[in-house]
Amino acid sequence: MRRHQRDGGPADGNLPQELDAFVGRSVELADLARALDAARLVTVTGAGGVGKSRLAARAAALRVPRDGVRRVELAPVRDPRFVDHAVAEALGLTDHTARPPRETLLAHLAERQLLLLLDGFEHLVDACAELVGALLRTLPGLRVLAAGRRPLGVPGERVFPLAPLGEDEAVELFTGRAALHDVPVTDDRDVRALCRRLDGIPLAIELAAGRLRALSPGQLLERLDDRFRLLADGGPDASPESPPRTGPGAPPPRHRTLRLAIGWSHELCTPRERLLWARLSVFAGRFDLEAVEYVCAGHGLDADDVLDVLTELLAQSVIAREETPAGVRYRMLDTVREYGADWLEATGDAARLRRRHRDWYLGLATWCELDWFSPRQDEVAARVEAELPNLRHALEHCLTEPEEAHLGQYLAGSLWFCWAGCGRLAEGRHWLEQVVELDSGHDRSRLKALWVLGYVAILQGDRVSALAALRECREEAERCGDAAAVAYAEHRTGCLALVTDDMPRAERLLRSALERYEEIGELNSNVLMGRVELAMTRAFQGDLPGAVRMCEDVRRICEDHGERWTRTYALYVLAYAAWADGDPARARALLGDCLTGAHAFHDLLGSVLAVELLALVTVVEGDAAEAAVLQGAAGRMWRSVGLPLFGSAYYNAPHQLCETTARQRLGDEPYEEYVREGARLVREAAVSRALERPLDAMPSPREPARYAAASPQTHEPAASRTRKGGETAG
Questions:
Q1: In angstroms, rounded to a whole number, what is the distance separating the alpha carbons of residues 29 and 567?
Q2: Integer Cα distance of 416 and 456 in angstroms
Q3: Which of 199, 490, 620, 649 could be bridged to 513 by S-S, CB 3.0 to 4.6 A?
Q4: High-pLDDT (> 90) share of the chain, %
Q5: H-only helix segments in 167-270
Q6: β-pairing, 320-324 with 327-331?
Q7: Exposure pattern of 163-188 as b/e (b: 16+ CB <10 Å)?
């Protein structure tokens, strides 16, 4: 199952689909298009609910440059340090290195012509302004369209203030939304008066239209007029949603109109609807029904009633429903969420709701970690990606509450499969480094975070940090008698020895770790990965039959449990052995399966290893030019992985053999040109090219079996050296 594409996917962008008609704004769209032609940074500003996001998205969809449009939704981001991560995520970037996200962004966008749409940045304005300024100064092909309540303040910015809808367009919007509720509107005079009273603010108009099942336009107007008159006359406006009417802190009139319109809509809700509205404000980004039922039920709202109340809020446009790869999700507009958050604070129940939110996402992470080793692995990957804003929110909560530090350590450690298996090493490193510094008083939670930190650092190529974390984990685990943490620390230390070419030590540590896993009854993706890594040590030391037996066993267990991620690495070793045995057709089939699986999980390491070996298989089959192209593509991918082939002589030997053979057949200049061609391929294109080369198009003469597993010191087949009685030492 392929999930949505990341890292250099097609240029169609990630703009949200319009679920209802876009009304009016033809003049504004034309003016905004001209502004985008004249300036590289245009910021659409205006009060909440005036339609900034919708207009910007429509303008972006009508002006797609060569490399597409990418929208960055910043409303769910709470920490300014995550702005760069959010942009990288929206661009679909997967980077396994330890370099900062800013560096990755600059490298990825260097030769692209792209329109970046930043939406909802006002609470992060300083961080966004600094990032946008740096990007625009460095990247001539980048344009930025921003939508927020205030300008970014970056030099060269063109500010585009957005006014509310004119009366005719406001009436068209109201009647159109009324039709969605199957309510015909016939009294044009009341509708026009209502739209004027709401200052033509689209969100306020949509909230009003959501009430038409119960009230006529005339009744809506009468109630709204009463609400405005009451506040204007100095009536009871001490509710948390009501801003001061005068003085230096008074909000702009139209913002006040929107707040009052939302407050009026809130007053028309039943007590249960108001309660759920307030409680939904604890979510960051989108949320699903199960989460709402757990977090928001109780204390005046029965769990059995949650769906009915949620449906009413949906009908009244308080929330919106969306289809996502992870299923149906709901969301609240920022202004509506802020209003609900004010009410939640006023009820005195905010702290309890935040704990409920944290508990749900702790449980979700636990479930996902267990189900990672199951046929639901794809579902888990999609689910955790959809829930990342709320998982981050839960982590932030744990970090700000000292008594919950151990829960933050547990959560960051339990998400190892997201950090390591789904291409989010940089974000994982960010959280793990924070939580291991906390003195939680809970050894097991911190030890888990430590070995996961060591694992992430290995994958990023940061050997010093990896060794420090794993050594501390091992020593502390032995002190407190945590057998599982000892096994994981030993396992990952063996993995570190593997990628640094110390094969005897790697084999010794990995065997010991696997014995420890067996003693405690541990079987999961990590344990199976340890078996694959042990098989790699045997393959690199010349014992190909032993490596094959181990990986066939791992492959069988993975298929029995529906595990696909670790299976890709077992397939890599089996393909390596097939190539070494002189069977390039089998090697290619295995590598195609391997690459498909690794790419689906955004696992850059698994992907680039497969492409590297596919290049060697291709030259063995007689197509040196295509092999050089694949080597160039792999070289570009390694920049996002870390040190090419780990700097390992063992991992590098097939690459060197491929390059030597291709150069001999093509000549140096043509070889370098083909490599440059491959280096121009973005990851998606490189993977497609590697996978889609039809077998019947391969050159017919097969290379002789002399292309077997080469040691780092010589191109003599390792299998033949084993037959002569010696194993290759690390």
A1: 50
A2: 8
A3: 490
A4: 55
A5: 167-180, 188-197, 202-209, 217-232, 253-268
A6: antiparallel
A7: ebbeeebbbbbbbbbbebeebebeee
316 vs 156: CA distance, rounded Å: 41
Instruction: Give dist(CA 13, CA 69) in Å, integer.
Output: 5
Residue written as token pair 């110390």: 502
The C-alpha atoms of residue 585 and residue 648 are separated, in whole angstroms, by 27
Tokens of 438: 């906390």
C-alpha triplet 138, 142, 145: angle, nearest 5°: 125
φ/ψ region of 298 (left if φ > 0, alpha if ψ in -120 to 50, else beta) reads: left
pLDDT single digits (tens) 469-500: 999 999 999 999 999 999 999 999 999 999 99
Nearest CA to 371 out of 565, 536, 96 is that of 565
Q: Which domains does the chain have, with CATH numbers?
A: 26-161 (3.40.50.300), 167-268 (no CATH), 271-348 (1.10.10.10), 581-730 (no CATH)
Local confidence band at 436 (pLDDT 50, 70, 90 cut-offs) = very high
Residue 595 has pLDDT above 50, yes or no: yes
C-alpha closest to that of 549 among 540, 559, 538, 558:
538
pTM reported for the whole predicted model: 0.81
* Residue 41: φ, ψ to 5°: -135, 115
Task: Please give the share of the chain, as a percent, with pLDDT higher than 70.
Answer: 87
Give per-residue pLDDT as tens, 618-663: 999 999 999 999 999 999 988 888 777 788 888 889 999 999 999 9
- Residue 61 contacts by C-beta under 8 Å, 6 or more apart in sequence? 13, 15, 69
Question: What are the residue ranges of helices labelled H in 562-682?
Answer: 565-580, 584-600, 604-620, 624-638, 649-666, 668-679
Query: How far apart are alpha carbons 540 and 97 in whole angstroms?
Result: 25
What distance in Å separates the CA atoms of residue 154 and residue 342, rounded to the nearest whole number? 31
Kindly state the tokens that stand for 705.
Answer: 């079996």
SS3 state of residue 159: strand
Query: Which residues are bridge partners to 118 per DSSP?
Result: 72, 146
Mean per-residue pLDDT, 432-446: 90
Q: What angle do CA 678, 637, 372 make, to 5 degrees?
A: 135
pLDDT confidence bin for 250, thresholds 50/70/90 = very low
As to burial, measured by CB atoms within 10 angstroms (0-12 exposed, 13-18 middle, 19+ buried), residue 700 is exposed
With CA atoms as reference, report the closest residue to 157 among 40, 255, 263, 64.
40
pLDDT in tens, 657-677: 999 999 999 999 999 999 999
Residues sharing a CB contact under 8 Å with residue 578, sequence separation 6 or more, in sequence order: 584, 586, 587, 590
For residue 2, how many other CB atoms are within 10 A of its CB? 8
Which residues does 415 contact at the CB level (< 8 Å), separation at least 6?
365, 368, 369, 384, 391, 428, 431
30-68 in b/e burial notation, b at 16+ Cβ within 10 A?
eebeebbeebbbbbbbbbbbbbbbbbbbbbbbebebebb
Digit-coded pLDDT (tens) for 110-145: 888 999 999 989 889 999 999 999 999 999 999 999
What pLDDT does residue 530 have? 97
DSSP letters, 78-90, are --GGGHHHHHHHH
* Residue in 228, 224, 216, 346 with CA at minimum distance from that of residue 281: 346
As a whole number, the mean pLDDT across the chain is 85
Contact indicator for 272, 305 with CB cutoff of 8 Å? yes
Residue 590's Cβ-side half-sphere holds a number of Cα atoms within 13 Å equal to 25
